[in-house]
Design brief:
The protein is mainly β. It is built from six helices and 19 strands. The strands form three sheets. Strands 8, 9, 10, 11, 12, 13, 14, 15, 16, 17, 18 and 19 form a twelve-stranded antiparallel sheet that branches. The chain has a four-stranded antiparallel sheet with strand order 3-2-5-6. A hairpin with a 5-residue loop joins strand 2 and strand 3. It is globular. The relative contact order is 0.17.
Length: 378
């Protein structure tokens, strides 16, 4: 898991803020905390261990940063205050569940209202600048890594067009994959599971009868009350199990977070373009987080994980487990129709956009270096 970072153009003095968010209740890390400069369309997201890191110009030291996470009270700190603390405590939001969940609407009606409100709640089309990472794993060993700063234009909500990459400058591009089966290692493939943009699955009006929705609780996001709704796919086929969790605003029906998991059992085999192998036991899971840019929400961060198993075509014996792990962190967003984001990554040094290294990152590099050494040995 990469630690998100913000990078600004070099000026007179560059300062750094880094630390970890923990809960006041149990002192455990709070994952995926959103940090957003209030005066700028820039921000970052803490990783799954609650760690964050960003640099900023000294002139921005007193600028206010909004700090928020689902289930915790939002706070506001200056960049300087964040720089002076290694550990930032977040207080869990106290929500009267009974008062929030008592509503004449069923959970499915809330979802229907959320779908209808998508055009009002989200940026219709946007130009994104951020950092993308895709790593593949075969038989327990990382065999490929592709990462770097990336800029793309999203043609719009519910658009059938793919996103358009305007700039991608790979810092690393290592590939030691043995099986070369098709995988979800591009941002277009990962964003095919962006349910809000694509109006698919549990956000497809034509498909809602195939899903069961239930209130599972309530929470808060940036000071707003939100419903927590669980969705599960209804199917007579035991080979599939699809579930999701959505955080929906009580007042505006905006979806602030989606967590999903799709599974197809090993009894469902699919042919590959490699004649001797079959694919089965697919799992797709991930999270999508959204944050405000002025009065509209945009995609702030996502993590996407796809795993599957390659089987022998004749005997249906497992050959190898295959995994792909993708992440994207938005650093800047703007309406695509108005202007391109400034300071595009391709105009600067790629190393300036590389997030701090983590234990997972070192594990990936260790596997790749071992494969490289093995490949180069006589």
């Amino acid at each position: 898991m990469l630690i998100p970072t913000l990078v600004f153009p070099l000026r007179a003095q560059i300062l750094e803020a880094k630390g970890v968010f923990v809960s006041t209740n149990n002192l455990k890390p709070v994952p995926y905390v959103h940090l957003q400069f209030k005066k700028y369309n820039i921000g970052t997201v803490a990783n799954q261990e609650g760690a964050f890191s960003f640099t900023y110009d000294a002139t921005m030291a007193e600028d206010t940063i909004s700090v928020s996470a689902v289930g915790f009270e939002a706070i506001q700190l200056s960049a300087r205050q964040l720089s002076q603390q290694d550990t930032i405590l977040l207080k869990e939001a106290v929500v009267e569940l009974a008062g929030l969940i008592v509503t004449p609407m069923r959970a499915e009606e809330v979802i229907r209202k959320s779908i209808a409100a998508i055009p009002n709640n989200y940026i219709a089309d946007a130009s994104y600048q951020g950092f993308f990472r895709a790593a593949s794993k075969e038989c327990g060993t990382y065999t490929s890594l592709n990462e770097g700063p990336l800029t793309f234009n999203d043609p719009g909500l519910a658009s059938s067009d793919s996103i358009q990459l305007t700039c991608y400058k790979a810092n690393r591009n290592s590939n030691f994959k043995k099986y070369n089966l098709a995988d979800s290692s591009t941002i277009n493939q990962a964003l095919s599971f962006e349910h809000i943009r694509n109006r698919q699955g549990f956000l497809n009006l034509q498909n809602l009868d195939s899903w069961r929705f239930n209130f599972s609780g309530a929470s808060q996001y940036e000071g707003q009350d939100v419903y927590v709704i669980e969705a599960s796919y209804i199917s007579d086929e035991r080979r599939m199990k699809h579930t999701a969790e959505l955080y929906v605003g009580v007042d505006n029906y905006a979806i602030y977070k989606i967590k999903y998991a799709y599974h197809w059992s090993e009894r469902y085999f699919r042919k590959t373009y490699i004649d001797s192998l079959l694919e089965a036991d697919h799992d797709w899971k991930g999270e999508f987080h959204y944050a405000y840019s002025t009065d509209k929400l945009y995609l702030k961060y996502f993590v996407f994980h796809h795993s599957k198993v390659a089987y022998d075509h004749v005997y249906k014996r497992k050959v190898c487990e295959l995994e792909v792990h993708n992440e994207f962190i938005t650093q800047f967003v703007a309406p695509a129709s108005k202007h391109e984001p400034p300071n595009t990554p391709c105009s600067g040094s790629a190393k300036d956009y590389l997030p701090p290294e983590t234990e997972l990152y070192h594990n990936i590099l260790s596997d790749l270096n071992a494969l490289k050494d093995s490949d180069s040995s006589p």
